[in-house]
């Protein structure tokens, strides 16, 4: 197993007994999944920040991206690192914890405490592994809706998220229009493109080609497909950046050496960086979970669920939308956001859209982007006025 | 004397706002920082939407709580369904579009009414600059030189009337403002407006 320092939590334990809050559901509240499977014992791990007001009208659900977790604004117990969106969420931040009650839950199929392939199957007492049903974005949203019910919240003031989180935002608005007062889908699309499916497939094949993957039974057999998952992460990480960002950060600079070594060591800084990204990822993420969650993104096509017409997904919506994209994002380019905006306009929805200037690529939505913060702050403040908050 | 750009603009906005019925759906094409939309939302209680080319403008609008999308009048109006709005407004923008005729046709398609305000290139001061100095006119309201102006399709009031006739738009109201912001004689003939109107505002509907 990995040589984690003692102060850090064991990721395997976290899959079943998370350090965060957790809501457990039994046969009285089964999760009906798109693939036809009914999960009658399942759980969803979540964190909250701020205070829910008496009218329960100030709740913001934050949806995490592919490899995110519920620790949006607090320390991740496995890595010991701070929350993944602390630039955006906190006291006085654009998503202000002094004003709003923020909920962030791990997705179904994830590995930080919500039921997924690394969780123990109650029928067998063994990890689910590949016997876990394939999940969709809509399944993730159904699970979140059950949690929001459990918290006694009828209408969310806002549902916000980037990338895969943005897909969940769109699905929320389509599935539960009356429960979403405002929606903030960032750096996302209403469907996953062929190119993005292609990148995901390379990552999955890297995992499955690792002999330690053991046809998905590595947890039972005491191995970890660390090499395969690491390569998957390295490949994916390139797609989160941009040519300009890589050039600015690394250029052709060499790593701790004066000249090339005429070997396949990590001569270049960019190689060293990617190796580090891959290695640190495998310590916190379950390989099978990576297969499931990437698959959920691939399957996402909101228009396909509405006779191929995206506008129908939002017919009659009263939700206020704010859509944003980044100039250097080639994973979810501005055209993807424009397609969402086009559909929302056709549906007569209240929508704002801005393409933000950034050279940081897809990851820009997670980083220090003052224009994104200003847009978010302005949008939420105006929505709060409209909601009487 | 001619008013500064902002003062002229303010009078123009008020005039446009007066033409809009309360509690209607309005799209402002080229809405800038959202000043007109905010005025309409406040004084006319309209459902205010906007399109703006500049990122800064959109950011200002969103921060004001307006629903504004970043887009281009020349290309993005085609995305809206027919009759989506009661009014589609083009305030001081038509001269900066690549294809004014197409923009006007799209406005009349997606809106039941269109409101267009523009600077009159036929005003006597413009004519005088061309006539006496032989140079492209530069005024306080239109301070650009020919080589850096975003205004690529200037027209006169009479030119605009001809375009309205070409696209079959019916003129419900028309107002011309002189350089001081006062209304030019209401019953005056077009040639008089064309000479003494610094700005014009037209309320149009499909003919």
From TrEMBL, chain A:
Record carries keyword Amino-acid biosynthesis: yes
Any Pfam family matching the protein: Abhydrolase_1
Pathway assigned to this chain's UniProt record: Amino-acid biosynthesis; L-methionine biosynthesis via de novo pathway; O-acetyl-L-homoserine from L-homoserine: step 1/1
The AB hydrolase-1 domain, residue ranges: 58-367
Transmembrane segments: none
Subcellular location, principal: cytoplasm
EC number: 2.3.1.31
Entry GO MF terms: homoserine O-acetyltransferase activity
Active-site residues per Swiss-Prot or TrEMBL entry: 163 (nucleophile), 329, 362
Keywords annotated in UniProt: Acyltransferase, Amino-acid biosynthesis, Cytoplasm, Methionine biosynthesis, Transferase
Location of this chain's protein in the cell: Cytoplasm
Positions of substrate binding: 233, 363
Record field: catalytic activity: L-homoserine + acetyl-CoA = O-acetyl-L-homoserine + CoA
Subunit structure: Homodimer.
Family to which the UniProt record says this protein belongs: Belongs to the AB hydrolase superfamily. MetX family.
Main function: Transfers an acetyl group from acetyl-CoA to L-homoserine, forming acetyl-L-homoserine.
Protein name per the record: Homoserine O-acetyltransferase
Source organism per UniProt: Bosea minatitlanensis
UniProtKB/TrEMBL annotation, chain B:
InterPro entries: Methionine_synth_MetW, SAM-dependent_MTases_sf
The organism's place on the tree of life at top rank: Bacteria
Gene3D superfamilies: Vaccinia Virus protein VP39
Leader peptide range in chain numbering: none
NCBIfam families per UniProt: metW
Identification of the protein by name: Methionine biosynthesis protein MetW
Organism the protein comes from: Bosea minatitlanensis
Gene: metW
